[in-house]
Design brief:
Blueprint lengths: L2 E3 L5 E3 L11 H23 L4 E2 L4 E2 L36 H9 L2 H10 L30 H21 L10 E2 H18 L2 H8 L9 H14 L2 H24 L6 E3 L1
Antiparallel strand pairs: 1-2, 3-4, 5-6
Helix pairs in contact: 1-3, 2-4, 4-5, 5-8, 6-7
Length: 266
């Protein structure tokens, strides 16, 4: 392999990369993981079934909050705001745009799907196949600037999922009970809160635009806590994404009768 020197003195290397490790594995796994979640989400969104277990108040996260007249009896905890629009507009579609908007514009997820799907770039020290770079200044990528507003929408959604986890402490006789589903929902909402609060926008909202932290001890303490979470933002992004999928799947299997919820006590 030869390298020539141009007018600026920089080496011109014809090879796409000089890396010899499996640099392609990370974007490949990322693309596979995101694709699997999207496919599962589409199937569940339009199946419009098996999302509510009335015996234990288990509501699948893909259908929470359920705000449509199409919601099954007992699942609409906050009222029926929207009419039943048939199989094309199922209950999740009234909330999912805000949840997906938060994740889609997330700083980590941008890196993930830019590298894995658009190969921009696929890895460090690997040239991308695109002839030019325009950044996020044009539609639709200019919409990434809405991330902060999607964060505001994600907070009440996390609050609703917290409510779902609390009412899941229901026994078969109507009293207090704990099952495997209860614990799964608790873990799920904990990860969702951790991911939401680790958001870069949250960190800026809490401690941004401050000249002297010493004059704002409460905000400084909050900023410190959020900063620690922010350091694990990538891990929390994946953990919460997997948790949402597994929690939804578990509720669906219990609601359909495929699984029987393991009860720790009634």
């Amino acid at each position: 392999m030869t390298a020539s020197t141009g007018p600026t003195g920089r080496a011109r290397i014809e090879a796409r990369t000089l890396r010899t490790d499996r640099w392609w594995l990370s974007p490949l796994l990322t693309a596979a993981g995101l694709t699997a979640f999207v496919v599962y989400g589409l199937v569940r969104t339009f199946s419009n079934a098996n999302y509510w277990v009335p015996q234990y108040n288990y509501l699948a996260p893909f259908y929470s909050p359920c705000l449509s007249d199409a919601c099954v009896e007992g699942a609409a905890h906050f009222g029926r705001w929207f009419p039943d629009l048939g199989w094309l507009i199922t209950p999740p579609l009234f909330v999912l745009p805000f949840v997906l908007g938060f994740r889609f514009t997330c700083y980590y997820y941008r890196k993930a799907y830019y590298r894995s799907f658009w190969l921009s770039p696929p890895a460090c020290a690997v040239a991308e196949p695109h002839a030019k770079y325009t950044g996020e200044r044009r539609f639709p990528l200019v919409m990434q600037n809405l991330h902060r507003y999607f964060f505001y929408a994600a907070i009440p959604v996390a609050g609703v999922l917290t409510y779902d986890a609390v009412i899941a402490f229901k026994g078969a006789d109507g009293g207090v009970g704990v099952g495997l589903g209860t614990l799964i929902m608790l873990v799920n909402v904990s990860l969702i809160w951790a991911y939401t609060l680790s958001c870069h926008s949250c960190r800026h909202i809490v401690g941004g635009k401050l000249t002297h932290f010493s004059r704002h001890p409460v905000r400084y303490r909050l900023w410190t806590m959020v900063s620690k979470l922010n350091g694990k933002h990538m891990q929390l992004a994946w953990a919460s994404l997997i948790s949402v999928g597994l929690t939804d799947l578990y509720v669906a299997l219990v609601a359909s009768g495929v699984l029987t919820d393991l009860r720790l006590f009634n």
